[in-house]
Amino acid sequence: MKSSVRLVAFAAVVYSIGCGKSDAEKFADSYCAEVAKCCGQEGKATNGKACHDLMTLAGTAGTYNSANGNACLAEMRSEVSAGTFCARLNSTSSSSSSSPCDAVFGDASTGSKKVGESCDFDFDCATPSTGEVGCNLGTCTVLLAAGGACTFTAECVHAAFCDSSQNVCAARVAAGGTCTGSDSAECVDGYYCPSSPKQCTAQVATGAS
After folding, report:
1. Distance (Å, rounded) from C-alpha 117 to C-alpha 105?
2. Of 79-88, 94-103, 192-201, highest mean pLDDT
3. 91: helix, coil or strand?
4. Which residues pair with 118 in a beta bridge?
5. Are 169 and 156 in contact (CB under 8 A)?
6. What is the predicted pLDDT for the residue at 149?
7. In the prediction, which pLDDT does 74 show?
8. Which of 169, 132, 130 is nearest to 149 (CA)?
9. DSSP per residue over 15-83, as a string?
10. Digit-coded pLDDT (tens) for 60-93
11. Strand partners, 139
12. How is the chain split into domains, by residue range?
């Protein structure tokens, strides 16, 4: 199975020390589970080990961007639903459009690009003394705090998401808070918005019902 160019770009996993799994590991579990299904379609191993190994070998010193991770999983699920995910993985050409999957992992300490300079990933941009910077549409951009006008979540600081009903950055909803399910990053890390009830609910462990 050909390696996805996009997967290689962000393939790194931060393993937590102590009990439980980190958000990065949960991301890898979810993403690699779908990759394994694609491998199964080609008669190859379906345990996802190769995907996890690729992420680990690509670098374990990266930082996990939860907003982009959630957005990447949402994109993945959309492609799975449309039946295009496996075809995308097998493609040797990178996507011409910006994808949150391009900036899920990175080493924040290596960024040197200033605001306004060209970039490929969030971690290309230097961390400012105040505020947050991300790579939006190929340019290092100051991320918007809650209340800022936006069109997509990647424009907002990592503690916020883009509320499409008002097109403004809004604080991510806390556990048990009311949500709409309009954005995968709407709830705080470790929570999601189910179809019913519309409340930010804790994600379940891998293998659970």
Report:
1. 20
2. 192-201
3. coil
4. 139
5. yes
6. 94
7. 86
8. 169
9. PPSSSS--HHHHHHHHHHHHHHHHHHHTT---S-HHHHHHHHHT-SS-EE-HHHHHHHHHHHHHHHHHT
10. 545 777 777 788 888 888 888 877 778 767 653 3
11. 118, 136
12. 1-94, 107-143, 145-201
- For residue 105, list its beta bridge partners: 64
**Using an 8 Å Cβ cutoff, are 183 and 171 in contact?**
no
Cβ–Cβ < 8 Å for 74, 30: no
Q: What is the pLDDT of residues 136-192, one digit of tens each?
A: 888 888 899 999 999 888 888 888 999 988 999 999 999 999 998 877 788 887 788
Residue that has been written with the tokens 């199975």 in this structure: 1
Give the whole-angstrom CA distance, residue 85 versus residue 88: 5
The b/e string for 82-104 (b: 16+ C-beta within 10 A; e otherwise) is eeebbebbeeeeeeeeebbbbbb
Q: Rounded to whole angstroms, how far apart are CA atoms 119 and 103? A: 11
Predicted structure pTM score: 0.47
**What are 101's two structure tokens?**
């999957």
Distance in angstroms (rounded) separating the CA atoms of residues 52 and 83:
23
Which token pair is 68? 């982009």
